[in-house]
Amino acid sequence: MSASSSFSSVVRKRFLQKSSSLFSSSFLTRILPGSVTGVCASSFKEIRTTTTTATTIPSFFVQRKSENNWCRPCSVTIENFNSPSSSSAFRRSYASSSTELMTSRTSPTESAQQNNKEKKKKNKKKKKSSTTTTTSKTKAELEELKTLMDMKKPGKWYPLARTMQREIILHVGPTNSGKTHAAMERLKRASSGVYCSPLRLLAWEISESLNKFGTKCDLVTGQELKRVENAEHIACTVEMVDVNKVVDCAVIDEIHLIGDDFRGYAFTRALLGTPALEVHLCGDTSCVELIEKICKDTGDKLRIRNYERLSPLNVAEEHFSKKRLEQNIEKGDCFVVFSRKAVYALKSEIERRVPLRACVIYGGLPPEARSRQAELFNKPDSGYDLLIASDAIGMGLNLNIRRIIFNELTKFDGVEIRQLSSPEVKQIAGRAGRYKMSYYDKGGGVVTTTDDGMVLDGNRKNGDNAKSDIVKSSGVSGLQFIQNQLNAPVEALKTAGLAPTFEQILEYCSKVEGATLEDAMKALSSDAIVPKYYKMRKSDEVIRLAKYLENLGMEIEDHYTFSVSPTSVDCLHSMKTLMNFAKAFLNEGHVSVKLIPKSVNKHDRKSRADAQTRMNQRSVGILATLEEQHRAYDLYLWFARRMSAQFPEYSLAEALRVMCAHSIDAELQKLSTTATIESNSRKKKSEKKEEGSSKPVKQIEELDRKILRSAINRVNEERKNLSLLSKPATTKKATTTTSRQH
User: Fold this and answer.
1) Which of 133, 135, 136, 240 has the highest count of CB atoms within 10 angstroms of its CB?
2) Could you report the per-residue pLDDT of 143-153, keeping only the tens digit for each?
3) Would residue 230 be called left, alpha or beta, if left means φ above 0 and alpha means ψ between -120 and 50 degrees?
C-alpha cells in the first residue's frame, strides 16, 4: 500500500473537517499513531486550501510496520508544501526505507527535535501499555457481544422448566376434531393448571366455562386481571403465561402459530418455559416435526395423539348464485370476505334483498362485540340468521354454521393481493357443520363460492392495477380451487419464532456505547445466531414505535414498555393516543383517560346516495369511531396493568371500554333494523313472517339498551369517584398556596 493511499483513507476526512486550531500536538498524536503507515504531502495541500493563514504542523510520530517502529519527527509549515522540492522531499521521507528515513531532511530547529525525543522516551511505555489495555478491553467486549448474540440454546433461558421432567402431549388434527376438548378435560381434572389462548375472547370463554364447571379459574390478559378466590387455574393469553409458577397441567392452544412471523415467539416461550408436569399442545399436523426437534433439544418426553374430523365437510356441486340470492340463501349461511368495508357492503346488500338479519365478525371488532354477535347468531330465536365474517372466524369461536360461502378467494396480506393458502381455506371452511350443533345431524358442513368469486392468476405486488390482475378464470373454477386446497398435503413448519428478551436488549445497550433501543432491536433481530429450526420474529412495528418515541428522552425500561404496547402503527388515532400518554408520563408522571383524543367520523356527508344508503354510511362511520375509541381504552388498560401508579384511572377506563362495546352492539342492531325495514317494505309477502319474528328481536334490542344504560351509569359513577378522590388533593394544594401568600 502506498503512503498517500494510507493517509487519505484514515486521516484526510477528519483533517478536512477540522479548522486549523485543531492541529495541536495532542490531537495529532491521539489520531495518527498506531493507525497510519505513511503520509502524503498532497493531502496537506488540501488542508492548505481550508486555512487562510500559514499554520505550523507540530511534531508528530507515524508508526511503521518495519522493525524501526517510529520515524523521525518532522516540523514544517503548510505553506512550504506549495513548493515542489519540499513536497517531493516530504513524500520521499515517508515512502523510503527505514535507513533512508534516518538520513532524510531534519527539522529546522534542534531544540524542538530534542524535546520531541525526550517526550518520546517518557511516553513510549505509557502508549504501549494503554494500547495493550485498549486492545484487551476491545477483545473482551467483542467476546461478550459474541456471547450475547449466541442464542443456539433458547431452552436454557428457562431454568425452572429445565429442572422438571415434563411430558409433552401433542394433540393434532383438523378443525372440529375434538383435540382441544380432550386437552381441556385433562385440565379440568388437574389440581392446578393454566390455559394459554391465542385470543382474549377464547381466554374469556375458557375462564367462564371452567368456573361454571366448578373449577375456579382466574382470567389474565394484557388488559384484564380477574381473580377468583382460591383459584388454582388460570386462563390467559399466550403472551401472559407465567414461566415462574409451577402447575400440574398446561394447555397451549393453536400451537401451529409457533411459526408465525410476528406472534410465534410467544408460543415458543410458552412451550419452552411453562413449568408444568404435563404440557398439552393443540394444533394441526404441520407442527409435528418442529415440535419433535424442540423436545429433543429440551429433553422433554413427547407423545403424539392424532384426531379425525367428527363431522363431514362437503364441497357443493354448484356455486352460490348472487343473482338468485333470494332463492339460494338459507338460515345458517356464513359469507366470507376479507376486509371491513366488504363486510358492511355485503351485509347492506343482503339485508336489503332478503328479510333476514345478519351478524358481522371481523378482526377490528372488539372481543366483547364479537362474542355478542356470535351469541346472537347461535341463538335460534334471536332473529339473526346469517353471518358476514372475515377470516377472524377461523379461530376461537364456536359458531352454528351450516354453509361457508367464500365471496372472495383472494386477500391483501399487507404486501400483496394473493390467493388463499391451503391452511387458511381449511381453517375457515372447517367451521361449517360444527360437532353437536344443530347442523351436525343434517349432513355436516358445506363449503362453496359465489359466482363472482375470483382467483388470482399468479402473485402480483399491490399497486394501482392490482385489481386488474385478478381474473375470473385462470384455468380453475372457484369450487375446484376450494377442493384442491382442502385436498392439498399439509406443509410442515420449518421454524419457530424467537424474540430477544428485555434483559438481552439492556445488556446490548450497556456494552455498545451510544446504542439506542432501536439499534439493539435491529442488531439482536438480524445478527443473532439461532438454530436452523428457529427464527427471530419480525420486529418492524416495535422498531417503528421505538423510533417514533426516541426523541422524548425516556429511560430504556419505559421506552421498551411503550414500544411493545399494542399500538396500531397504521392507525393515526392510536399513534396520537400513544404520544399523548408518553408526554404526560414524562412531564407529569400521571396519565389520565381524558388524554385520549376524540375520533372523527369520516363518513361522506355530501354523498348523493339515497337516504337509506346515507343512513347506513353514517352508522358504519360511527362504528369506525367507536372501534378507535375502544382500542384507545384498551391501550390505557394495558399500561395500567403494568404502570398502575402512572395510569391510575383503570376503573374508569374499563367502564368506558364496556360502554363503548355495548354502543357498538347497539349500532350494529340499528344498522340491521334499518336495512330490514326497507326490505320488508319492498316485500309485502314476508310481512307476516316478520311480524312473528320481530318480537324476540325487539326483546333483544330492549335488553341491550338496558345493558348500555347500566354501562353509562357505571361510567358516571366512576367519574364521580375520581372527582371525589381529587377534591382533597386540590383543597390541600389551595391551602398550601394560601399559607405561602400569607
Assistant:
1) 240
2) 888 888 889 99
3) left
Q: Grid coordinates representing 279?
A: 404440557
pLDDT at res. 416: 87
The CA–CA distances, whole Å, from 143 to 149, 154, 491 equal 10, 19, 39
Q: Tell which residue, 338, 335, 336, 362, has the closest CA to residue 418.
A: 338
- Cell numbers given for 31: 489520531
Each residue's pLDDT tens digit, 312-353: 899 998 899 888 888 999 999 999 999 999 999 999 999 889
d(CA 127, CA 135): 12
| DSSP label of 65 | S
Distance of alpha carbon 648 from alpha carbon 594, whole angstroms: 12
Q: Contact 286/492 with Cβ under 8 angstroms?
A: yes
How far is residue 446 from each of residues 321, 405, 409, 483, 729, measured CA to CA in Å? 15, 9, 16, 12, 64
Does pTM surpass 0.70? Answer: yes
Interior angle at CA 462, CA 461 and CA 467, nearest 5: 110
Give the integer Cα–Cα distance in Å for 5 and 546. Answer: 41
Strand spans (E) along 230-310? 233-237, 247-252, 276-283, 301-306
Q: Residue 599 has what DSSP assignment?
A: P
Beta bridge partners of 26: none
Which residues is 236 bridged to in the sheet? 196, 220
* Run of H or E residues at 197: strand 193-197
Strands 410-412, 56-57: parallel, antiparallel or unpaired by DSSP? unpaired
Q: How far apart are CA 603 and CA 185, in angstroms?
A: 49
Give the HSE-up count for residue 127: Cα atoms under 13 Å, Cβ half-sphere: 17
CB 386 within 8 A of CB 414: no
HSE-CB at 419 with a 13 A cutoff on CA atoms is 19
Question: What is the per-residue pLDDT across 441-492, written as a single tens digit (0 to 9) for each?
Answer: 667 889 999 976 555 444 444 443 443 344 344 457 889 999 999 999 999 9
pLDDT tens-digit profile of 608-620? 556 666 777 888 8
Q: 413: pLDDT confidence band, cut at 50, 70 and 90?
A: confident
d(CA 415, CA 461): 7
Cα–Cα distance measured from residue 40 to residue 711, given in angstroms and rounded to the nearest whole number: 81
